[in-house]
Write a structure and sequence with these properties.
The complex is a heterodimer of chains A (about 260) and B (about 250). Chain A is α/β, with parallel strands linked by helices and about 260 residues long. Chain A has helices at about 20-25, 30, 200-210, 215-225, 235-250, and strands spanning about 35-40, 45-50, 60-70, 75-80, 85-95, 100-110, 115-120, 130-135, 140-150, 160-170, 175-185, 190-195. In chain A, helix 3 packs across helix 4 (about 215-225) and helix 4 crosses helix 5. The longest helix of chain A has 16 residues, at about 235-250. The two termini of chain B are about 30 Å apart. Chain B has a six-stranded mixed β-sheet, sandwiched between helices. The chains are: A alpha/beta (about 260), B alpha/beta (about 250).
Chain lengths: ~260, ~250
C-alpha cells in the first residue's frame, strides 16, 4: 500500500522561511530523502560541503542524518551559495560525551533563499555541540538559520551553543533566525545568540582612508565575518577552500 | 601643497566649518589648535572624505588636484594620510594584511607594481622599529586589544609604511604617556620632516609641539581660522587659554 507523500508548505514551522513557490513545484519524494551517516564510538569524522550556484539554477534540499557514538566527534562545515532555494538540513544525535561542531555560511544575492536547518539531539549526558552560522546577503536575498536543540531527560552536563549573525549588504535583503531549545534535563548549559546588521561603515572609511577601494574593503570585512564559522575546521586546506568558495559568490555581486 | 579656500562643511545639516582657509606649503608643519567643538576633527574628516561630512562651499587644492572630487581611497593614493583620533578596530583582519592591501591598492591606483610579501614585511619591520612597536603586534587584528598609546603608535607605523605627501594628524598626542609622546613626535619628524612633505597637526595641547616644531600655528574657533602666528602662539595659548587669545 502506498501513501502519497505530502509536500511541506510554509505553514510548517520548519519550512516557514522557505521559498513557497519553489516548494509547491518540488518533487515530494526527493524532499523526503535523508542521507544517513553513522559515526562509531570514539571516531572522528569531517564533512565539508559546498552548495555552489547550480548551472541550471534548480535549487535543492540536502538532508543529512548523523548518529555520533559515545565520545565521537563530528565536524560539519557547509557553504550555501546557491539558489533560488537551497536548504541544508542536519539532524544529529549525540551519545554520551560526543561532540558536534557545525559551521555554516549562507552568501548570495538576487532573490535567493538560502537556509540551514539543524536539529541536534543530546540523547545522553556530557555531549557538546557548537553551531556557528554566518549570513551575507544582498539584493532581495534571504539567509535563514533554524536551529533546534533537544536535550533529553537525564542528558546532564550537556553543553550546547548556537550563534547566528547576519550582514545585509543592501536594503531589501533579509535574514531570519529561529532558535529552539527543548530542554528536559536540569544540569545543562545551552546558549544561543543572533544579530543582524550592516557592514561596519567606520571600518570601511578607515580602510578607504588608507587607500583600500570599497570593493576590496568589503571583501576583507566579509571574509573576516564569515571566517568565524570556519575557525574550527581542522583541515587548513579545506578551511581556505570553503572561505574562497564563499567569497567567490560575493565577487559576482553587482553592489 | 594643500590650499583650502573658504571651506564650508556640515554634519547632519549642521554647519561646522564656516569659511576656513589655509595654505600649507611643501616642507611646512602647521598646527591647528582650538577649543572643543571648534571644528578641528570635522576639518580632518572633511579632508579625508568621510561619509556624512558634506562640503557645502569652498575648495581644496591638493598638489594641483581638486581633492574634494576624489573618493576617499583615491585621496589616500594621491598622498593624503589621515591619522585618526580614535583608530578603528577591525576584528579578523590583521594589520599586516590590512597595510599590504592598502599599500598595494595605492600603488595600483598610481600605476605602480605591487610590493612583494618579503619587501613589504621588511618595510613594515623597519617602520615598526622606528615607532618602537613590536612587530608581532602587526600580526594581530587591526587595533584590536591595543592600548590607546599603542593605537597611536600604530597609526604612525601606518604613516611610515604608506609614505604620504601630506598628513593630517587628528589629536595623535591624546592618550599618550610622556615616553610615547616623544617616540611619536620623533616618528613624525623622521617620516614627514622633508622638503617635499607637509603636515597638519590637530591638537589641544602644546606638548606635542615640543617635539614637532610647527612653522605656523593657527587657532580654529567657530569653524574658521581666527588667528595665525609662529610657534610662540601655541605657548601663548597654553599660558592664557583660548578665550583670552581669541577675544
Amino acid at each position: 500500500m502506498t501513501q502519497a507523500l505530502a509536500l511541506p508548505t510554509t505553514r510548517d514551522e520548519d519550512w516557514r522561511y522557505a521559498d513557497a513557490a519553489w516548494l509547491a513545484a518540488a518533487d515530494p519524494a526527493a524532499l523526503a530523502q535523508w542521507e544517513d551517516v553513522r559515526i562509531a564510538a570514539g571516531e572522528a569524522r569531517q564533512v565539508y560541503r559546498v552548495l555552489a550556484a547550480d548551472a541550471d539554477g534548480a535549487g535543492r534540499v540536502e538532508r543529512l542524518r548523523v548518529h555520533v557514538g559515545a565520545g565521537g566527534r563530528f565536524e560539519l562545515a557547509v557553504v550555501n551559495a546557491a539558489g533560488p532555494y537551497t536548504r541544508f538540513e542536519a539532524a544529529v544525535t549525540l551519545e554520551r560525551g560526543a561532540h558536534f561542531a557545525f559551521g555554516g555560511v549562507t552568501i548570495g544575492g538576487g532573490a535567493n533563499v538560502q537556509e540551514f536547518v539543524t536539529r541536534v539531539i543530546h540523547a545522553e549526558p556530557e555531549a557538546t555541540s557548537q553551531q556557528i552560522v554566518r549570513a551575507v546577503q544582498w539584493g532581495r536575498a534571504t539567509g535563514n538559520f533554524l536551529g533546534r536543540i533537544e536535550v533529553v531527560r537525564d542528558a546532564q552536563k550537556t553543553d550546547a551553543e548556537q550563534n547566528f549573525r547576519a550582514i545585509l549588504l543592501e536594503q531589501g535583503a533579509s535574514a531570519n533566525a529561529k532558535p529552539e531549545l527543548e530542554i528536559y534535563a536540569d544540569d545543562v548549559k545551552c546558549a544561543h545568540g543572533a544579530a543582524i546588521g550592516a557592514l561596519d561603515q567606520e571600518a570601511g572609511f578607515y580602510m578607504a582612508s588608507r587607500g583600500i577601494p570599497p570593493e576590496v574593503a568589503r571583501k576583507l570585512l566579509v571574509r573576516a565575518f564569515i571566517a568565524d564559522a570556519f575557525a574550527d575546521v581542522s583541515d587548513e586546506a579545506e578551511q581556505a577552500r570553503l572561505l574562497d568558495t564563499a567569497l567567490a559568490a560575493l565577487e559576482g555581486a553587482a553592489l | 601643497m594643500l590650499k583650502i579656500d573658504n571651506l564650508q562643511a556640515e554634519v547632519a545639516n549642521k554647519p561646522i566649518l564656516k569659511g576656513l582657509s589655509l595654505d600649507v606649503k611643501p616642507g611646512e608643519i602647521h598646527a591647528i589648535m582650538g577649543p572643543n567643538g571648534a571644528g578641528k576633527s570635522t576639518l580632518g574628516y572633511t579632508l579625508g572624505g568621510r561619509p556624512g561630512y558634506e562640503v557645502t562651499g569652498g575648495s581644496v587644492d591638493f598638489a594641483g588636484q581638486d581633492l574634494l572630487a576624489l573618493e576617499p581611497h583615491e585621496r589616500a593614493a594621491a598622498g593624503l594620510f589621515l591619522g585618526f583620533q580614535y583608530p578603528v578596530e577591525i576584528p579578523g583582519v590583521s594589520f599586516v594584511q590590512f597595510l599590504r592591501e592598502a599599500l598595494n591598492a595605492q600603488r595600483k591606483t598610481r600605476g605602480e607594481e605591487p610590493l612583494s610579501g618579503g619587501d613589504f614585511l621588511k618595510l613594515a619591520r623597519e617602520k615598526a622599529a622606528l615607532l618602537k612597536l613590536d612587530m608581532d603586534m602587526l600580526k594581530r587584528p587591526v587595533n584590536v586589544g591595543f592600548s590607546g598609546g599603542e593605537k597611536k603608535r600604530a597609526e604612525m607605523v601606518q604613516m611610515g609604511i604608506l609614505d604620504p605627501k601630506f598628513a593630517v594628524l587628528d589629536e595623535t598626542d591624546s592618550g599618550l604617556d610622556i615616553d610615547a609622546l616623544r617616540i611619536v613626535g620623533e616618528g613624525i619628524n623622521a617620516i614627514m620632516r622633508r622638503p617635499d612633505k607637509a603636515v597638519l597637526l590637530i591638537t589641544h595641547y602644546q606638548r606635542l609641539l615640543d617635539y614637532v616644531k610647527p612653522d605656523v600655528v593657527h587657532v580654529l574657533a567657530g569653524g574658521r581660522i581666527v588667528k595665525s602666528g609662529g610657534p610662540e602662539l601655541a605657548l601663548e595659548l597654553e599660558r592664557e587659554g583660548y578665550e583670552a587669545v581669541v577675544a
